[in-house]
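INTERNAL TRANSFER SHEET
From: sequence group
To: structure group
Subject: dihydroneopterin aldolase

Please process the attached sequence and return the structure record in the designated field. Keep the field labels unchanged so the import script can parse them.
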Amino acid sequence: MLDAILSAQCARGLTAADSRLSTIPAGLYELFLENVILPCRIGVFDYERDAPQRVRIDLLLQVRQDGAQFSDDIGDVLSYDDLLSGLKRILMDEHTNLVEMLAEKIARMCLAHDQVQSARVSVAKLDIYDGVAVPGIRLERTRDQMPGQSLPASRRPLAMADRRI
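Return from structure group:
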């Protein structure tokens, strides 16, 4: 079955990668950080306040590509390390009641990086239903939805030299 679908796409001159790339606007690229599993103090119930629980976070960012082409210099791109450090800071912060608010905080952290134009954030609570189900949320925020965003120093992106994971 899969072979038939791929053959049909090839006959039309399309591959899965071609159809995916066509949705990325010119001058942008997509950066993803997936399956980040970390402890988090989250939830409205008393038992959720007693101990951290695992959350899974997935990020898909549209990032402005400065210049006509990529260089091989880490200073010219958004660092995965900066994103992961930002996630850890948010999750170690105070208790958050709702996954919706946690996802919003994460989206704002991503958009605090000047080159990020949009952030798609997925947050799932892995332990809440003992493996029977995984509840969560997905949201997407764009730079134009966050006018005048001003983050406290604890939420601002770290300079490359200041990074610690």
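Handover comment: The CA atoms of residues 72 and 152 lie 31 Å apart. The two ends are 44 Å apart (CA to CA).
Transfer complete.
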